[in-house]
Amino acid sequence: MRLFDLKGKVAIVTGGNGGIGLGMAKGMAEAGADIVVAGRNTTKNAAAVEALGKLGARAVAIEHDATDEGSCKALVNGTVQMLGRLDILVNNAGINIRKTPDVMTLDEWNQVITTNLTSAFMCSNAAYPEMKRAGGGKIVNIGSMMSIFGAPFVPAYAASKGGIVQFTRSCATAWARDNIQVNAILPGWIDTDLTKRARVEVHGLHDRVLARTPAGRWGTPEDHAGIAVFLASAASDFVTGTAIPVDGGFSVSG
Questions:
Q1: 109, 121, 128, 157: the active-site residue
Q2: Strand (E) or helix (H) holding 142
Q3: Percentage, residues of the chain above pLDDT 70
Q4: Is 157 noted as a catalytic residue in this protein?
């Protein structure tokens, strides 16, 4: 369907070498987009590029530190130099440190906020001139269920992901005049390396998630392919400033 066709489009996915980031990258690749995998782990970057190439996509990797402003600018510049343009930015890079607020250190707090929230600002700020020059673009920010709920063991993560939603709304209203749509995805409990550790660190988490999720399972990275294509394509040209849960119904279940 033409509305969802991404042929000729170029997408950056930060943290695109695994988990939800790679799941979204695969969806956009299958829709025809060229993909830039941005991440610090060069081995994982190369594996992701290989996997995307098997889907028929033109994919490249750029080593990227999401916490460094210069690296964010170099990512955008490198993308334009290699692939000629930038149409889609997915701000997906993120970390978590699971500690209650009374024991979390300032350094740990800053690590999470910088990686999850400030990086989205820096990459979006760097991408804006290219998207404006091209006549439009799409920015997709990755929030979380913790953009909605509170939990005692994720104070910095929850603050960063709540901030992602408000940052998304600010960008959406600021850049609508430039035909740039900015939206957020709020993943639920997804089976990734990060949540595998959570299931070890948080007693009973696995069973509690299954009990509350109407779909009756944990999500997968591939569950984010469709929403990524929608928010990256012409199908969402009149959708901006939203925060869409992808959670199997977790957020609406009592």
A1: 157
A2: strand 137-142
A3: 100
A4: yes
3-state secondary structure (DSSP) of residue 10: strand
| Number of structural domains found in the chain | 1
Other CB atoms within 10 A of residue 249 CB = 13
List the CATH number of the domain containing 135.
Answer: 3.40.50.720
Range of the domain at 31: 2-190+221-246
**Span 3-26, pLDDT tens digits:** 999 999 999 999 999 999 999 999
| Residue in the block written with tokens 């469709």 | 226
Question: What is the spatial distance between Cα 16 and Cα 44, in angstroms, rounded to a whole number?
Answer: 9
pLDDT at 237 over 80: yes
pLDDT confidence tier of residue 111, bands split at 50, 70 and 90 = very high
Number of neighbouring beta carbons within 10 Å of residue 58: 16
Tell me, yes or no, whether 252 lies in a domain. no
**What is the identity of the amino acid at 36?**
V
Residue 203: pLDDT band by 50, 70, 90 thresholds? confident
Let me know if residue 239 belongs to a domain.
Answer: yes
Q: Which amino acid, one-letter code, is at 153?
A: F
Q: Looking at residue 224, what is its pLDDT?
A: 98
